[in-house]
Structure formats: C-alpha cells, structure tokens
Amino acid sequence: MAWQQRVPVHILTRDIFSITKVPSYTGLISNFGILTWCFSWAICTFTFFLIKPRHNLDKQIKNFIGLSGLISLWLMLDDLLMLHEQWLPYLLRISEDIVIVAELIWVIFHLIYFRKIILKFTQFKILALALLLFIVSIFLDFLPIKIDYIGFKSDWFFLLEDGSKLMGIITWCFYFCGVCYQQLIKYSNPI
Q1: Orientation angle between helical segments 152-188 and 56-81, nearest 10 degrees
Q2: Residues 127-145: pLDDT tens digits?
C-alpha cells in the first residue's frame, strides 16, 4: 500500500455514518438528490446505447440524450464528491465560483446547441421548470448573507435553497425519463 499513505484505508472503505458518529439521516435530502442524478444518468445512458437512429434527426436526438446523460453524471459526481466546493478549487487553484460558472456555461451551451430538438420534440416546459428551480437554488447560494446554521430562520433558508435544488433535480430526471421513454417507444414500434 505504498502508493497511498495520506488517507487511512478505513476512511475510504467504511460507511460515513460509522466514522463520523452522526445519525444515518444526516444529508438525506442531499443523498436523495445524488441518487436522482444517478437515475437521470442511467436512463439517458441506457437509452443512448439502446436506440439505433436511422435518420440525421434521430442521431441528433440520440446525441442530445447521451450528452445530457454525461451532464447528469458530472453533476452527480459533483454533488457526491463536492467537486466544485473542494476538489476542483484545490486541484486547479481557482475559486468555487469559477467552477460553478464553468458548469453553467456547459449546460447553457448544451441547451443552445440542442434548442431545436428541445423545443420541437420534447416537453420543454418541464425542463424550463427544472432550470428555474436550479436558478433559485444558485441565487440563494450566492446571496451575501451570513447563516448561523442553527435556528428557525436558517431552517427555512436551507429548505428553500436545498429544496429548490432537489425539486430541480427531480424535475430534470422526470423530463429525461419522458424524453427517453418517447425514444424507446419510437424504436420499439417503428413506423
């Protein structure tokens, strides 16, 4: 084990709740969000590899689904490993804000690039709702207010910030379940 001596192996292998002695419901909402990101990634990836496009438009829809799956995977890993909060700022020596802006630019570019598909062939209002909920969460995260983490007012703040993020993730997942279902039905019953 000479390759890795900085972090004890039990820290990497044991359950976080056993190590930290916190209740098992700690971070429940965050963990549910991570699982929902994972489901979005899985359904998009499964659909991407299952459908066989016959026309250029079908190939574009397949690419939209596949790249959306990669975005879901990245955002899942970001939430799970706290990439934008800790790892990327540390490794790249940049601020957390720059990482968030880069992620936003990636998503915006993705949406602009596939805008015709999104607007013409999907239930885009569901995606718009997901994006609105993410915007609320990001806006609240960037507010220059000090939170004491204890007390009634901070509970409402966290419910609003983290609740809007979770609802955004769920809505994002619901949207892509619909998009993928539509494509799977199309290819199971070709006309």
Answers
A1: 150
A2: 999 999 999 999 988 877 7
